[in-house]
Amino acid sequence: MEVVLNEATNGGHHRQPQNYNANGKSESAQQVTNGHSKTLNIEDNFENDTKFSRQPEKDPIDLQFKDVTYTAAMGNILTKREKKEILHQVNGRFPAGQLVAIMGPSGAGKSTLLDVLSGYRIKGVDGQVYINGQPRNMKSFRKLSCYITQDDRLQPLLTVQENMLVAADLKLSSDVSRKDKQDIIDEILHTLGLTKTKNTKAQGLSGGQKKRLSIALELINNPLVLFLDEPTTGLDSSSCMQCVKLLQVLAKQGRTIVCTIHQPSASLFKLFDQVYVLASGNCLYQGSTERLVPFLEDAGFPCPMYHNPADYVIELACGEYGQEKINSMIKATGNGNDIRYFKEPEKLSNIQCQKGASNDEDNEGGLQATSSCNQLKVLLRRGFIKTKRDQTLTYMRILVNALTGLMLGTLYWKAGQDGSKVLDNFNLLFSILMHHMMSTMMLTILTFPSEMSILVKEHFNRWYSLKMYYTSVTLIDIPISVICCAIFTTVIYYMTGQPLEWVRFMMFFVTSLLVVFVAQSFGLMIGAYFNVVNGTFLGPTLSVPMMMFAGFGVSLQDLPPYLYWGSYISYLRYGLEGIVGAIYGLDRPTLDCPEDAYCHYKYPKKFLEDVAVKADQFDNDVIALLLFLFVLRIAAYVILRCKLMALR
Length: 648
Ligand SMILES: Nc1ncnc2c1ncn2[C@@H]1O[C@H](COP(=O)(O)OP(=O)(O)OP(=O)(O)O)[C@@H](O)[C@H]1O
Description:
InterPro entries: AAA+_ATPase, ABC2_TM, ABC_transporter-like_ATP-bd, ABC_transporter-like_CS, ABCG_dom, ABCG_transporters, P-loop_NTPase. The protein is an alpha/beta fold.
């Protein structure tokens, strides 16, 4: 089969026929820029022969949208909500098997339109999107499509192969064997020229390679529709060509590929089948690239000689030639309704849009390709690799716990068995809680903000459910937290001369560990809602009242009655009660008192009375801490879910 594509560069003054074979490869094309022509072979600069044997497995998708309006709500719940209409009843059609470029000046609404069409943006959207003439069923559509964001959201510590394997394990059914998965990965990497970088960590890739890896990850499950937000931004001209040529090949196989693009060069522009031009949320032109020049002529604004039509139409869209020209182009295209300038408009008329609301019900089970159990397994494996690679943090955590333990141990040497140093020992117990709280909370406050962009992308592209992501985040840190807490507790317990009894040690350790996990949950909850700056401010700030209400400094019996409720919501209170009970409870006998010292608290009972700590409440303290743990973890999950929804 041969498709003849007329070239539409150079103001239409030097148009040459361009022959494409069935693989979508140009056999001999003429590149014409600025009045000069040179032969362009589609394979130029491309490492591979741009073949991709994986054909789409389902019927091609014709995407249509009618009267799409997007209104953004600005401000927050405290300030008055202002509405801003960004897309104004735009229409359009992206036929199957076409590579479509959404073009327009900065702020025209390109990314917004892509967000709406991909289903990423749902709030504030009006109008209808049709898939092969039927109202879009969001769930089914999401199973067929993928969204590749402008910024490369990759796991930096994983190699290309590891990134691909994680994606394959999450996006391909568990029935596919490891060998078949590897074959698929190898072919995609080969097609995208990434074979040589297979063992390079994503953080070590060049911008172009990162972009290609982002595409490679989404190609694994062979999507029918690809949305790409500015896939060429930040790439040099050769990488841009490579990237768009790949998309062209994928489109020729029957996929619908829509990408936003800033002012493309003439040679890049002609690689697209269709172009959709936006200006201030309105459609100026939609149709084939080669018919842009005739359209401009028909509209009465012919493209000047030796001018790249892509540049010229952007200049028009920017309003450089006046607002009235923009208005008349919007009118000429019927804000995207007119399909006369498409490549074969007569072929498109047989798909009629069915009236009716979109049916968002889906009978085909969950959104993800694999079971929850598999998602958790793969995410834990990925988390383990990340922890192993990020050894600085792992070692630092262990080292900090050992060193702080040694430091405090030296400072409070054998204070635990000295009847004259009971208050010092009490200070020490509180410092231990402070250490557990601050060291874990501050670390976890950063967990979600630093992973948010990757989470949003992977979750939207159905790699895993939020529940499994959250469970993996919760589980992955347990071993290292337990190790750190065990090192710290053992060092400090022995050095500071606390009673060497297993029961007391275990009570001490269990309470410390629970405080660690509760502090972690508190950090996760803050991190789930706030960004890094606000989170790192709020975490320690909210911890201060919690310390005050724990019974340190001001004992609980001295708290004013109207503030007593604070002690119930301070998890540190239960932590302090637990470890003080472990050290001074269980009917501990009278403490040793050095001959030359005054031992006010020689009798542990007297001390417990004075600091108003009930030493027989260990079970209740554990229950209270477990309750905090449970409630805060659920709250963090709910907040994270709401945040993900709010972003859309
Ligand atoms: N949530 C929002 N709240 C307020 N304004 C918004 C929101 N989302 C988008 N906008 C505005 O809508 C306009 C279009 O934004 P969009 O990101 O779609 O533009 P774009 O054409 O992709 O621009 P660029 O090429 O610079 O990325 C911009 O003026 C932007 O400020």
